[in-house]
Design brief:
mainly beta, 7-stranded mixed beta sheet, 4-stranded antiparallel beta sheet, 11 strands, 0% helix
Length: 119
Amino acid sequence: QVQLVESGGGLVQSGGSLRLSCSTSGRTFSAGVMGWFRETPGKEREFVAAIRRTGANAYYADSVKGRFTISTDNAKNTVYLQMNRLKAEDTAVYYCAARSLTASVYEHWGQGTQVTVSS
């Protein structure tokens, strides 16, 4: 089992920045891919970004490309999501997730952290 704990959410003005952290523990060697998703009321959970734990192959949703950066620090077992030039539409609960390299779905999820961008 892999445990994920997000932190770093909060309230920020439009145009500002936040960095989310996802601390991992447990069978972290099985979590070959780490991802960030977000959810707003009335909408399906949306993919934001993903990266291999090696730090290679980062992928982004078109809506955040060029503004958000996902990265890993394996020494700290932590995955980050640096969010710059935030917009009101980025307001959501952000979730960290993990899956194995061979899995087609994310198997482990954190509890989420709220990000609110005021316009």
